[in-house]
Amino acid sequence: MPNIRKIPGIAETRLIVLALHDPPWVLVTIIYAIAMISALYPKAAFGFADIGRDGTRPVTSYGASATVAVVAAFFVSLLFRFVFDPSGNLFQTISTPGAFRAALEVSLQRLPWMFMTFAMTFTIAWVTDNRAATPGDVPRWLRYAECGGMSGVFLVAQYVTLELLLSSAPAIFEPSTPFRLLPTAAIVGGLIGALLPHWYRRIRMNMAPRSSGPIAPSPAWHSAVRRKQRRRRTRGPYSKSGRPASCRQDTPVP
User: Fold this and answer.
1) In which band, very low, low, confident or very high, does the pLDDT at 30 lie, cut at 50, 70 and 90?
2) Integer Cα distance of 121 and 160 in angstroms
3) Where exactly are the transmembrane stretches of this chain (predicted)?
4) Domain span at residue 29?
């Protein structure tokens, strides 16, 4: 087997691997991305996940999206922990016996993170459907409510996740862990709530079909015309003031 240390470029690869492995923020960012994609993609790809089809919330689709996100996030985290081993040497990790089993055990210990993924995906799928069927009629306060609501949901989900992790794998905790993760979850949730639903509604409004020809009068317009015609037949040749139509004056009498 060739000496890996003598292969050009291995030192740079080692630095990149260490940089990726050192903080969990890369993995957390990937999980956030998986949650957003899993929540939004079915709305555009499948009719049963589109609230505009019948005007009711497809709650089953929300749950399916969250489940898909959990499965995808688990396998991504497993692959991440297997490939980017703390040794920082990709080739050594692949050739080490039991490396995959160790990564699987760590992933199972940190399985409570999947609750966070499920909660994020379900909430994003739910909130992005707010007024999505009528994107042109959105109250101004809705964006602020979505920002605060998403921030609160992410904060609660992160707290529950930390409590579950504390009972399943207390060794991975540091005293500063809750003080770092809880504010981060609240900030990320607020940003997603302020930006993502608003962006999704704007896309739906821009993609709404527009008529190329003249717009046909609505039934309400026809009803208004008929009421006006009935009033004219009832009044006869008289104006609103009771005078005959021939006696009306366009200018006031001095």
Assistant:
1) confident
2) 16
3) 24-41, 62-84, 111-129, 141-161, 181-200
4) 4-206
Residue 254 gets which letter from DSSP?
-
In-domain check, residue 234: no
pLDDT band of residue 194 (cuts 50, 70, 90) is very high
CA end-to-end span of the chain: 114
Q: 0.70 exceeded by the pTM?
A: no
Alpha helices, DSSP H, located in the chain:
10-21, 25-45, 59-83, 90-95, 99-109, 113-127, 141-168, 177-206, 219-235
Q: Is residue 13 part of a domain?
A: yes
Q: Residue 192 falls within a domain, yes or no?
A: yes
- Distances in Å between the alpha carbon of 61 and those of 58, 122, 123, 139, 249? 5, 9, 12, 26, 67
Instruction: Supply the pLDDT for residue 53.
Output: 78
Whether residue 161 contacts residue 115, with contact meaning beta carbons closer than 8 Å, is answered with yes
Give the number of other CB atoms < 10 A from CB of residue 164. 17
Mapped onto helix, strand or coil, the DSSP state of residue 244 is strand
pLDDT above 60 (res 125)? yes
> What CA–CA distance (Å, rounded) separates 43 from 9?
43
Provide the number of structural domains found in the chain: 1
DSSP string, 171-225: GG--TTHHHHHHHHHHHHHHHHHHHHHHHHHHHHHHTS---SSPPPPPHHHHHHH
